[in-house]
Amino acid sequence: MRSAYAANLLLLIFSFWFMLGVCGVHAWNFRMDPEVDPERVCFLASVKGGREVQGFFEVLLSPDSDAPAAVGFTITGPVVDSKQPEKARGPELVRLVEVSAPFVFAAPSDGEYELCFHYGEEKKARDIAFFYDLGDAEDEVSELLRDAVKQDKHLEPLQHRAVSIMHELRNVRIAQMRMRERIRQNLRMLQERKRSVMWMTLLELLTVVAACTLEVVFVKQKLDTRRIF
């Protein structure tokens, strides 16, 4: 009996660490360009019904503009009962118009979900960081935990606690990715500004050298003129 309890406890611990290893977040850094994608940029995600999908997006700063332009973001569910599925659109589940925003929704049914970005009022190119988690790893680990609890009811309190911790870790992981992207964005902007300052300094130096050279030539010409007379 004790050995069975120990085995189930080890399975519970293994399941928890398995979740930490396979917790997959889909990450994209892409560029919206009206010359390439005139209307929108979309991603397809296959989601099981009842699963919670969460993530965030952020329009990245550009050296060419003072502030990033907002984008429209929509999530559309699978088409239901349509005679022309290739032309029909499913129900709209999320609609945001932001520069940076988190999102979360529960999939009402199994199917392909469209996660789309729209240009909004300003139809110009922009870079976007996009992350989302479909909860795949969480579901797999929950199945393993349920199997362990079926064999030993003493593990039920641990199961509830582990599921709660998994959910919190999922939120922390997405928040970490968001923070890393902001740090990466700030470093990129810092490098761009450093490069700009370097070129401006070089230009100023060349201007000073050119001005000094012209001044020396002008003074020399004046002195030569006085010697002649």
TrEMBL record:
Subcellular localization, as worded in the UniProt entry: Membrane
InterPro entries listed in its UniProt record: Emp24-like, GOLD_dom
Keyword Transmembrane helix (UniProt): yes
Membrane topology of the entry: Single-pass type I membrane protein
GOLD domain boundaries: 40-171
Signal peptide: 1-27
Pfam families: EMP24_GP25L
Keyword field: Membrane, Signal, Transmembrane, Transmembrane helix
GO cellular component: membrane
Bilayer-crossing regions: 197-219
Family: Belongs to the EMP24/GP25L family.
Name of the protein in question: Similar to COP-coated vesicle membrane protein p24
Organism: Cyanidioschyzon merolae (strain NIES-3377 / 10D)
